[in-house]
Write a structure and sequence with these properties.
Elements: H1 42-49, H2 54-59, H3 72-81, E1 87-92, H4 96-106, E2 112-118, E3 121-125, E4 135-139, H5 140-143, E5 148-154, H6 160-172, H7 192-201, E6 212-214, E7 217-219, E8 232-236, H8 241-246, H9 249-291
Antiparallel strand pairs: 1-2, 1-5, 2-3, 3-4, 5-8, 6-7
Helix pairs in contact: 6-7
């Protein structure tokens, strides 16, 4: 992964069952702009080549969670209710390091944002498109898999012209690079929340989205879209940071068991080593059960994150 960046699911296109774009809206870009991970992504190649940097090595560790897979009933509910221009917020409970970062920096229970275009697709900024594009289209139905939490928001658009302008802006950015530096000042590159925020700002009647400052840097939090006056919550699975952290309790128990065993053999040093070893062993075992691979990184690439 790039220094501080985001990641995305590999997507195999499926035939969408809903259609949201109206006839008078600008038609979609050609289908080759849709993310279809037929080859290895940049993330997969970096993992295999050993070029994963230390930030990614920590943030991308998959931790087993008792969070259930996203319900099929909720998938159908979303597919039947979502409309063009809606905002999608997402987080994956199997990647707590990203959630800790998002909570610490942005005080957000979600770690990714995108805008729904219609016809079962949304536009997002991410890092793992096989062709190296940052801003891509992604299939929504295929995205609604895994141990994720999701929220769909409907901004208070004043007219269809406003909604069309926001979507046209997002479409115009397709293919642009991902902004790993979170630079809010230009439109040459985009990170996920920046893309959505600037799409809403491009309308004849712009919608203001709060911008967060941290360590002298400005960026848009996923939580900022929840604070838009008049925004409607179309769907929510009520992501909660503390509940997400608690969902890893089997790993905590494994680490505690390791610490107890190590401490009984080698004292405080053994307890520390046992804690680390117990946590890693439990994590890898859980990943084998849930993701099919005895590894800290059983899934490549990892789900979308905000930074």
């Amino acid at each position: 992964m790039d220094s501080i960046s985001s990641a995305a699911f590999n997507h195999v296109p499926v035939q969408p069952k809903t259609s949201g774009i109206k006839k008078n809206e600008t038609p979609s870009e050609p289908s080759d702009n849709v993310s279809i991970s037929a080859g290895e992504s940049k993330r997969e190649k970096s993992v295999k080549s050993g070029t994963r940097n230390w930030q990614a090595a920590v943030l991308d560790i998959r931790v087993p969670t008792v969070t259930k897979n996203f319900p099929e009933t909720d998938t159908e509910l979303i597919m039947n209710s979502i409309k063009p221009g809606d905002i999608i917020l997402e987080t994956n409970n199997a990647y707590p390091s990203w959630q800790v970062l998002g909570k610490a920096v942005f005080n957000s229970n979600y770690t990714h944002a995108a805008i729904y275009e219609g016809d079962g697709q949304f536009i997002e900024a991410t890092t793992t498109d096989p062709d190296g594009r940052g801003v891509i289209r992604t299939d929504l139905r295929k995205y609604l898999e895994g141990r994720i939490k999701l929220e769909v928001l409907r901004p208070p658009y004043k007219s269809e012209e406003d909604k069309k302008a926001a979507l046209d802006y997002a479409r115009a950015q397709l293919g642009k690079p991902y902004d790993a530096k979170l630079n809010q000042e230009d439109d040459k590159e985009f990170y996920c929340t920046e893309l959505v925020q600037k799409a809403l700002a491009s309308m004849p009647n712009p919608i203001d989205v709060p911008i967060t400052s941290f360590f002298g840097h400005k960026a848009v939090s996923p939580a900022a879209f929840q604070k838009i006056p008049g925004v409607e919550t179309v769907y929510t699975s009520n992501s909660n940071f503390w509940t997400a952290m608690a969902s890893h309790f089997p790993v905590y128990l494994g680490a505690a068991a390791g610490a107890t065993t190590g401490g009984s053999i080698m004292g405080s040093l053994g307890a520390f080593g046992g804690f680390i070893a117990g946590g890693i062993l439990t994590t890898m075992t859980g990943n084998k059960i849930q993701a099919g691979k005895f590894s800290l990184y059983p899934e490549a690439p990892t789900p979308n994150q905000v930074i």
